[in-house]
Amino acid sequence: MKDDVFYMKLAIANAKAMKGQTSPNPLVGAVIVLRGEIVGIGAHLKAGEPHAEIHALQMAGEKAKGADMYVTLEPCTHQGKTGPCTQAIIKSGVKRVIIGTQDPNPLVAGKGMTMLKEAGLEVEEGICKQEADRLNLPFFHLIQSDLPYVILKSAISIDGKIATAYQESKWITGTEARTEVQLLRQEADAVITGVETIIQDDAGLIVKDSFITQPIRVILDSTLRIPLHAKCLTDHMAETIICTSRMYDQKKYDQLVQKGYEVFVTNGERRTDLQDVLHMLKKRSVMSVLVEAGGSVSASFLEASLVNEAVIYMAPLLIGGKDAPTMFEGKGIKKLKEAIRPADIDYSMVGKDLKMTMRFQ
């Protein structure tokens, strides 16, 4: 059991290293061990390319016979862009398969384990299950809810401010936290912000110094106030979609479309409909979304129960001022029993800033 945990954690670490480049596929890692020696190791690198199990089997070669395979997610049984992994595992001669967690995809969902058992392989499931589950929260959520996984990020002072009363916000947190935010963007398929952030900061919302595909930039703009010279429209660094309501400015709409910018009109009468935005992104194979916005947009997502995870960086400073914006505005609650509470929360230090990762059911 001790060795099983060690090798499964190694497979999880391999899978985690691929964050940000496998969507819409899950993160998967695999390790093959023969008599205490690692003979094969692999991770799924990109959608459409071989799965982790295939990379590990190719590395192991003939040494896969009689070996144990550790894989973070149940092997697939269906023919997609690549062949079914279960058949390859059976053919290789692997005798025992240890699985981190079951795949909720209806095309798999237990079929992989059943097929392996029927072929005479020993199968164990649930080793490091919690870690394996967390590895693919966005993938699981997309399958189970038909909506992308939404991560809300905010940088705040101890008193909950995201800027001064005079709108100065650069920088509340330290360089270490800001570097982490770049990783959050890199791991997301899309980044959402409000038009106020574009007007105030001219935010580019790109992953700096990255050679991977940039996340889609989504601007929530109910009346189309976005400046035509905004960086997110003119830098050509990433795809940008402006999402608006039915109350949009027709003249501005025509100008944007004429210049080749994409405008998505939601069914919202006066405000951009967030459900419509998420459904539109899902159709574009977006699995995870990072919301980087002001208090009004953050409140809209939270009040609509659309936030799956919140990552808050709290800096050791006080800003004060009743007019200074906070991370969560909107109407607020009347009674404490109505407060939004996370299902679980993790704490860590990033430089001098406190990082809180909250997950909501």
TrEMBL record:
Task: Write out the pathway annotation from the protein's UniProt entry.
Answer: Cofactor biosynthesis; riboflavin biosynthesis; 5-amino-6-(D-ribitylamino)uracil from GTP: step 2/4; Cofactor biosynthesis; riboflavin biosynthesis; 5-amino-6-(D-ribitylamino)uracil from GTP: step 3/4
One Gene Ontology term from the biological process aspect of the record: riboflavin biosynthetic process
* Positions of Zn(2+) binding: 51, 76, 85
Record domain CMP/dCMP-type deaminase: where? 2-124
Pfam families documented for this protein: dCMP_cyt_deam_1, RibD_C
Q: Which reaction does it catalyse?
A: 2,5-diamino-6-hydroxy-4-(5-phosphoribosylamino)-pyrimidine + H2O + H(+) = 5-amino-6-(5-phospho-D-ribosylamino)uracil + NH4(+); 5-amino-6-(5-phospho-D-ribitylamino)uracil + NADP(+) = 5-amino-6-(5-phospho-D-ribosylamino)uracil + NADPH + H(+)
Under what name is this protein listed? Riboflavin biosynthesis protein RibD
Organism taxonomic ancestry: Bacteria, Bacillati, Bacillota, Bacilli, Bacillales
